[in-house]
Each structure stands twice: as C-alpha cells, then as structure tokens.
Description:
Low-confidence stretches of chain A: none
Number of helices of chain A: 21
Order of helices and strands of chain B: EEEEHEH
Radius of gyration of chain B: 12 Å
Number of strands of chain B: 5
Oligomer: heterodimer
Number of helices of chain B: 2
Structural class of chain A: alpha/beta
Shape of chain B: globular
Mean pLDDT of chain A: 93
CATH architecture of the largest domain in chain A: Alpha-Beta Complex
Number of strands of chain A: 16
Distance between the termini of chain A: 40 Å
CATH class of the largest domain in chain A: Alpha Beta
Amino acid sequence: MNRESFLARESFIEKNARERVRALLDENTFRELLGPFDRLESPWLPKQQIVPQSDDGVVIARGSLGGTPVMIAAVESAFQGGSIGEVSGSKLACALELTLGECEKGNLVHPVLLLETGGVRLQEANLGLAVIAEIHAAIAALTRHVPVVGVVAGMVGCFGGMSLAAGLCSHLIMTRQGRLGMNGPEVIEQESGIEELDAKDHRLVWGVFGGEQRHRTNLADTLVDDDAGAFREVIRAAFQRGVPERPRSAQVERSLLLRQHSSPPPPLSPRPPSSEPARRPSRGQIWFTALTGVDGAQLRPGPGGSKSVWSTDAPLAGETARFIAVVPDRENRFPRAREGEVGLEQGWALAREVRDVLEADANGARRPIVAIVDVKSQAYGRTEELLGIHLACAAAVDAYARARMAGHPVMALIVGSAMSGAFLAHGYQANRILALDAAGVSVHAMSKAAAARVTRRTVEEVEALGDAIVPMSYSVNAYAQLGTLHRLIAGVNADAPSGEDVRRVSAELAGAVRDARGGARDLGNRLLSPEARTTRAASLEVRRRLGAQWTEG
Amino acid sequence: MEQLTFIYPAHDSVVARAHVGVVASGDLEVLLEPSSQQQSQVIVTTSVDGFGAVWKNVLDRFFSRFRGAVAIEINDFGATPGVVLLRLTQAAEASRS
C-alpha cells in the first residue's frame, strides 16, 4: 500500500462488527436477523454479575455481495473478547444451518464468517464448547455445497475452538494484523511458561500467529490490506473459486510435512524425566483394551511414528466397529503432547484413521466408530502453533463429521477427561455421546486453575460457581443436565472394569449405535432431550426466532 | 453490576429507534425506542456499582436538551460520563433520521 492508497483507504479493522458487515454488503441490502432490539442476551452473564449485550456480541445479516446472496456472521471482538457463549454461538450455528437448508434446496446462499474471537466464553464454559461443536458441524456440512469464506481481519484474532472453525473454512482471508491459532500467546505463556512463548514479544507472536506467516505457510489463502473495498474484492474472488476439490482440513497428506519437521526444537524448559517408574495406564488405555481385547501398545505406530493414537477394529454387538483412543506417549517427540493431549500428530492421526474407515466402507456397510475419550487438553506449545495445531484438530473434526454424515454411527465414550479443544477434535462430532458416571470423568472448556486465572477468580470461586451455574460445573452429572449426553452410565469401575462392566458398556454402545442409525445424521438430537429443553432454552429460542426471521422480508 | 431507573418528562414524539455502541471496556451500548407515553424512561445496567448520582447528573444534562418521548436501555461497561453523553447524543441523532 503506497501513501496515497493508504490515505484513501477505508479501514476495515477499525469498524465494529455491525459496521464491518455493512461495509461488505451491497448498498441497501443489509438485513439484520436477531438484532439488538430482539434482546436475546446471554442468560448466564447477569447471574455472574456481568453486564450482557443486547445481541450477545454476534451480528447476523442477509444481503448480497457483488450481487451474490450471502449470509454474513460477524463476532464483535470488543464485547467479552469476542467470546462464544450459548446465545452468540447458537446464532452462528443456526445461521449456518439455515444457510445449509437453502443450499440443500439448490438455492445457493454464500456464508461469510468474520471471526474475531478468543473462543469459548469461560463464563458459559460447557455450553460455549457445545455450541462451537455445532458451528463446526454446520461448516463441515456446508463446505460440500458452497465455499465457506472465513475472514480474520484483526485485531483480536481467531483462537480456541473457533480457530478450528477457521480451519474448516473453504477459503480463509487474513490481514497482516490478523492472528490465527488454537492457543493464544497468553494462554501458552500461562500454561507452558514464558520460556515456551513470551506473549509480550510481538515480533515473535506475529511471527507464529500472524496473517503473513499463515499465508506464507498456506494456512490462509489470501492476504489482504486493511481496506473495506479490498475485502469485498477478495471475498468475491473466493466465491468465484467455488467449492475446493478438497478443503484444507481434508488434506491429510499435509501431516506428512510433520515428518520433515522431524526434530521439533527441544523444550527450553526442562521437562520432568520420562524415565520415572511405570505409571498406571490411562483411562483411555484401560477402556481401549477392555473393549477391543487389543493391547494398543502392540499396535503398529501410525505413519508419523506416533504411538499416541490407538486404533483398531473389534466386534461390537455382532458387527465390526472401529475403536480410537488418544493415549499418553512419554517418548513423543513433541514434548507438549506426551500426557494424552491432542497435538499436531494426534489431530492428523485421528483424521487419518477416521478417513481410512470412510474410504474402506465407501461402497459397503458403514461400520460404527467409537471415540474413547480421555483427553486432558490440546497441546500448548509454540511449535504446535507454528505448524498449525488448529488445522490438525480441524482435520479431525472434519473427518469425524464427514463419517457421521456418510452414515457411520459415530460414538463418543467419555471415560476420563474431555477437555476443550481436545474434546472438540476427538468426540464432539459424534452422533451420540456416552459418559461413565465415575470420579475422574469430567467435561470442560479449560482446567480449573487456568479458568480461575483467566476469569480472575480463585479456584474455590470457580468450583462454587460450578454449583450455581450449570455450564460452568466440572462434574459429569451437571454436564448431563445440558442434554448433550445420550447416556450417563453409572455403577461401573472406571479404573478396573470387570467383565460385567465391559459387557454393560458394550451393550450401551450397541444400543446407541442402533439409535443413531435410526436418527438424523446431524447434531440436532442434542437439542431434543428434556434436559436441553430446560437448560438450553436460550439455544432453542435463538433457533425459533432466527428461523422465523430468516424468511421474512 | 447495578441496575438504575430514571424517569424524565417528555413532549416531542420520536420517529425511529436507534442502537449505538458496544458493551466494551470503557464503552456502552444505548438502545433508544420511541415511547407512546408522556415521559421518558431510562434503565441503566452498569458494571460499576455506586455511581447513581453521577448517572443522574449525566442524564439530567442530556434531558435538559432532549425532549423526545423514548424508552432507553443502557448496558454500560465502565464508560466515563463524557462517553455516556456522546453515545446518548449519537442515539438521539440517529433516531431523527
């Protein structure tokens, strides 16, 4: 940009979400859905003495861009850091679902997502995570019909579970000011130490997450200057390119690049020695072995040499099912992914395993896929971000979603931790989610200590809030109240299951498989349970009113 | 978080509703709607407790010049009085067009 064009430009970054949408749409075509005067606010923020916003920080509009009918959804980064709560996330998910409905009728509406978000709103933790899974499902379904265009203009950037949404997009547009990554720099510094990443070192931060870096490493398609007119042009160009043959999140061969980076930089801070006495197997290992009869340690390692994703076929109620687990691997060459986290290798390995099943069954019976979930978090590391952990996890999401849409009954069986981005990548796209009702089984958006630091509370306060605010609870019983669970299985020994325990869980899985085969292939069933009707009243209200406004006018 | 309500006399009718601002740090959003009553009502939800007297001063000043019959809702995230007055003026202006 030279001096004249710099002075003549109309900054896009300086606009708020609503102004950005207006700037993109053709004149006089802006029609906002569920706008501020509909007053669909977060029901959870005022309960925590936090002032809500009348649109919950998401702007949804229909209109046209260069004559093409579009649905533009924009996250307002200035409200609660652009965080995704129940209402704001449901607005995004529902708008995408309605767009999908149009496309399925042959009436192409192009979706454009302006992603300026830190990810899950921690004050609505588990509901934020649940709606982000619904957003992922809708994007994965849409990319078959129409190019889904994502825009990360800055200055907040796009992080957390929403970075996976960016990874799922058909076409991603960024500015030099924009940033994209699964774990933001502050989170990495907090979780892994300042030696891993100094969040105040802006040159380093933009060198890892910045739009120019993302574009050069092919994690973004277009780099655009900060000018509203330029944004319109590049979005139109993206429409013209149409649906890519294989979206970025389906390019599993990208994972082979990891081998070229076969020696990630050694950890700068000493890690605890991995030669400590043999530990007890993880919950994931225990249940993988119990359900399949296969000792995963004896399985051939994946193409990347990873021993941290176990995958095998085993009988389930008279048919063959694929069982997949992420397990600790103390020798893993990525030190931030040794304890059962989902990192680069794990995300890509999950995608590969699920896609193998998809291809193998392309012309035959679709076998069930059982994701055994015991994942403590995503991997918080600089190397992970540099090489695109958000895309590795998006690839896993895409693969699971595609398997579900193709007719594979996809089951998630939570036997231990189901944490944040790791759960999104491994389990949250399932048709049916089952969980053991046992100590150590927990679903959440962030570990207690980290959530306490981010929301400026003590760990005790976070625990107390969990008792009062259902989606903030760490207990699996509270999670069951969200209505997302198909079954909560009580009375089994999670650490040392007996033969009878294993038979019971297998029978529950088989029942859920039958149920899934008879049901829809989207995630809509999660809103139908009696629990969802109570706890997720706001999600349902968003869907009811947005659906009504969609066709008006 | 604190909620405050204020009532002012009103004479003129207002044409359109208006929305300005964002509930961002140091900022606020204003939702202004025409009212059929002979008075204006302002409901303030603010993140900063204990500033009722300051809110009254700011709103007194705004309504000393603005006579429209409106229902106003404010969601405030620590805006200074100057920013509050600016947003109210913006909303009043937008409601005239």
